[in-house]
């Protein structure tokens, strides 16, 4: 069984990491933009951003995947399974990340904003050089938790026939008829991936904490 399972599962792990890392990077960029729009209270855009966050957080990720992959083709928009999976995960995680970043920026003392603006910095410059670096330090635990959750959420893209870890596990089970050890193996791999990212989180937190104390 091991000879059959390991290569297939490792391929699945590769896809799982592809989905998780790609969606996290894109989600951070989109989430930061959404957080800025809401903090700046840009007319109309801030309301649309709030609606987007509410919709993404208020509906199941599985439904969002179905809408993007199975629903959009009915209106002429069609994606490959990998693209659809990354898009769904990105849109979903960006909503959560935007709230983490918005809360972190709101947690920066008001005096920091006043000091930056009094030095002649514009609003965007104040955010870029003063507020955002402090907010990132505050947001690291929440951002890391989102990444760990995202690794587990990648299992849902198996419903659109992407051979990530969960789908790979099912494929091997169909050949070996040994579901228990294979599902336990998949669970162990998810656990190892999550534990590895937890260690990365702790190292980043320590480095940011040391940099902040200087």
TrEMBL record:
Signal peptide bounds: none
Domain ABC transmembrane type-1 residue range list: 13-201
Transmembrane segments: 12-37, 49-70, 180-197
Record has Endoplasmic reticulum as a keyword: no
Domain of life: Bacteria
Localization: Cell inner membrane; Cell membrane
InterPro entries documented for this protein: AA_ABC_transptr_permease_3TM, ArtM/GltK/GlnP/TcyL/YhdX-like, MetI-like, MetI-like_sf
Membrane topology (UniProt): Multi-pass membrane protein
Keyword line: Amino-acid transport, Cell membrane, Membrane, Transmembrane, Transmembrane helix, Transport
CDD domains in the record: TM_PBP2
Entries under Pfam families matching the protein: BPD_transp_1
Family: Belongs to the binding-protein-dependent transport system permease family. HisMQ subfamily.
Listed name of the protein: Amino acid ABC transporter permease
Source organism (scientific name): Vogesella margarita
Organismal lineage: Bacteria, Pseudomonadati, Pseudomonadota, Betaproteobacteria, Neisseriales
């Amino acid at each position: 069984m091991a000879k059959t399972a390991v290569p297939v599962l490792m391929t699945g792990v590769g896809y799982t990491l592809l989905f998780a890392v790609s969606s996290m990077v894109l989600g951070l960029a989109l989430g930061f933009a959404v957080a800025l729009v809401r903090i700046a209270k840009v007319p109309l855009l801030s309301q649309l951003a709030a609606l987007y966050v509410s919709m993404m957080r208020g509906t199941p990720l599985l439904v969002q995947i179905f809408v993007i992959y199975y629903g959009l083709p009915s209106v002429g928009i069609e994606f490959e399974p990998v693209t659809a999976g990354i898009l769904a995960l990105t849109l979903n995680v960006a909503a959560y990340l935007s709230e983490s970043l918005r809360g972190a920026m709101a947690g920066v003392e008001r005096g920091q904003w006043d000091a930056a603006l009094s030095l002649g910095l514009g609003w965007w410059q104040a955010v870029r050089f003063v507020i955002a670096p402090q907010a990132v330090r505050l947001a690291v635990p929440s951002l890391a938790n989102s990444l760990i959750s995202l690794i587990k959420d990648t299992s849902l893209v198996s419903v659109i026939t992407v051979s990530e870890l969960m789908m790979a596990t099912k494929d091997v089970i169909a050949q070996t008829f040994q579901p228990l050890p294979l599902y336990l193996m998949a669970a162990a791999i998810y656990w190892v991936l999550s534990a590895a990212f937890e260690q990365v989180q702790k190292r980043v937190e320590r480095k940011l904490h040391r940099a902040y104390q200087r």
